[in-house]
Amino acid sequence: MDKVFTLHGWSFDSSIWSISSFERAVHLVLPGHGISPFKSTDILNLSKEVGEFIPFDSTLIGWSLGASVAALTAVFYPQKVKELVLYAPTISFSVVSQPETVVKKFLRKLKKDFLGTVYYFRNLCSKERWNIPEFSREKTIELLESFTWFDLTPYIKRITLPVTVIVGEKDFVTGLKGAFEFWKITKKCTLKVVPEADHLTVLKYS
């Protein structure tokens, strides 16, 4: 899987791919979540960094925030990305997936009690437990803020390559609506809903 690249979600790291069929892929680390080759915490610029990093004919596998970065990379570097597999994507976290008031409250809590709020978020994702990566508090907050207020709609309309969207029936983070709206807008897109799977355990399915 030397041309298959994964992008994990916020507050997790590449270890989550161990439960998926992409365990042997090349795992890319988001800024602030450990040792990463990428610098930008703006998801537009980050996706361009990813596009420069990957070779031609790559397959990108993204989960949650990582799905947004993967999709944008395919928009800016269509000559390099041949396929997208996106777990729990959303076109707009703060509008489609969660109410704006909830997002603002979460971000305030995150700045006051970073680790406590990370644990709270992880509990929303799944009851399964994972180790906390070596965080850069400032970078992870900046990256999350960029993701939460970003609208993918005008960008993903330009995607013409094959896309597979996979979402858990019991995803209460980005949610069924986020995945459905992504599927509805994107050409050549297949949507799979996994019964009983949550935001994290959906990674077990392909």
TrEMBL record:
One Pfam short name: Abhydrolase_6
**InterPro entries recorded:** AB_hydrolase_1 (IPR000073), AB_hydrolase_fold (IPR029058), AB_hydrolase_sf (IPR050266)
Instruction: List the coiled-coil residues.
Output: none
AB hydrolase-1 domain residues are 6-201
Q: Which PANTHER family match?
A: MONOACYLGLYCEROL LIPASE
Q: What is this protein called?
A: Putative carboxylesterase BioH (Biotin synthesis protein BioH)
For this protein's source organism, the top of the classification is: Bacteria, Pseudomonadati, Aquificota, Aquificia, Desulfurobacteriales
